[in-house]
Specification:
The protein is mainly alpha-helical and 157 residues long. The protein is built from eight helices and no strands.
């Protein structure tokens, strides 16, 4: 069995365990989007990657398994907010949007601004030149729909 070494696009950047979990989840979702492989096989492969021991494994599981399990609902929530068919998104943008949307809906303990910023950073690291701007705009709109009370409260303070 061959193991592939997964490297970060910006290795000098300091990353938290949770950020690393998001990076690995993005890579897993990317693989799933392209190949529709079994999520357990993807997870097992990623867990062998260099640096996974520094990631928040519980958060990785939540994101990878949760986003795939809820993909139909997440895509339905994102569809009216994007200017193209979901199938036309780059796999990196698609994966980052799924992670961001999943976290906004299911991890309310994480501030919405952190969720959006993390998705933007993932897209900057792994995506195309302006993909991060697109992800930011879509997740801003998604947050307004899912975290309106939190957004309103943050504007009052």
């Amino acid at each position: 069995m061959t193991t592939t070494k997964i490297l970060h696009a910006n290795p000098s950047k300091s990353r938290t365990p949770r950020h690393r979990a998001r990076e690995f989840a993005l890579q897993g979702l990317y693989q799933w989007l392209l190949n529709n492989e079994d999520v357990t096989a993807i997870s097992d492969h990623i867990r062998q990657a260099h640096g996974f021991d520094k990631a928040d494994a519980e958060h990785f599981n939540s994101l990878l398994y949760g986003a795939i399990k809820d993909v139909t609902t997440l895509r339905a929530g994102l569809a009216p907010l994007i200017d193209r068919q979901i199938s036309e998104l780059s796999p990196v943008e698609h994966a980052a949007l799924l992670i961001g949307a999943f976290e906004l809906q299911n991890h309310v303990e994480i501030p919405y601004r952190v969720v959006i910023n993390e998705a933007v950073e993932l897209t900057k690291s792994f995506g195309g030149i302006d993909g991060h701007k697109y992800v930011n705009g879509v997740l801003d709109k998604f947050a307004a729909r899912t975290r309106g009370d939190e957004i309103s409260a943050s504007k009052k303070s």
